[in-house]
Amino acid sequence: MDIKEIQSLIKFVAKSGASEVKLEMEDIKITIRTGSAGSGSPETTIVQQIPVPQTAAAPAAQAPVAQETAAPAPSEAKKSDDDSKYITIKSPIIGTFYRKPSPDKPAFVEVGTSINKGDVLCVIEAMKLFNDIESEVSGKIVKILVDDSSPVEFDQPLFLVDPS
């Protein structure tokens, strides 16, 4: 659990009106207490890290990831067969994906657009810098895998291109 998730949990508990919430997981214990409406006391958060031996931590962390990737695999098996003939263009950076250079301009590419090597496909904003993402292949856009103005991770698939 990272700091953003903890902050979100604190905000959720504060809005819900609960006076106390306890959350215990394998390696962390969190208690969030909010003052009652009449007392005026400030919100109190206690985060306690429980020490876990190194050998036990690695398998515990890897097991849920393996289960998450194994569950959707059968449903994606059909997609990978159909998509195997296409080239996937992936995000080279973390940031916010934009299909247009600005809100009042048309999108760089649409499904069915023919592209050449070096054509700008989208823009990814990272730390207030807008980075043009250029195609490294020529072909035709088959599918746009990310919604406009949504966050993307490094190496996340953005487009499927038919190179033929």
What does this structure look like?
The protein has 164 residues and is α+β, with helices and mostly antiparallel strands. Among the domains are: 3-33, no CATH class; 84-162, OB fold (Dihydrolipoamide Acetyltransferase, E2P) (Beta Barrel), CATH 2.40.50. Helices cover 26% and strands 34% of the residues. The chain is built from 3 helices and 11 strands. It has helices spanning 3-16, 54-70, 73-83, and strands at residues 20-24, 28-33, 44-49, 87-90, 95-98, 114-115, 120-126, 129-134, 139-144, 150-152, 157-162. A hairpin with a 2-residue loop joins strand 7 and strand 8 (129-134). Mean pLDDT is 77; it is low at 37-41 and 56-78.
- Element order, helices and strands? HEEEHHEEEEEEEE
State the separation between the terminal residues, measured CA to CA.
45 Å
How would you sum up the major sheet?
4 strands, antiparallel
Helical content band: 25-40%
The name CATH uses for the topology of the domain at 84-162 is OB fold (Dihydrolipoamide Acetyltransferase, E2P)
* Fraction of residues in β-strands: 25-35%
Outline: elongated
Structural class: alpha+beta
Q: Count the beta strands.
A: 11
Radius of gyration based on Cα positions: 23 Å
Mean pLDDT: 77
CATH class of the domain at 84-162: Mainly Beta
SS summary, helix count: 3
| CATH architecture level-2 label of the domain at 84-162 | Beta Barrel
Q: What order do the strands of the largest sheet run in, or round the barrel if closed?
A: 4-11-9-6
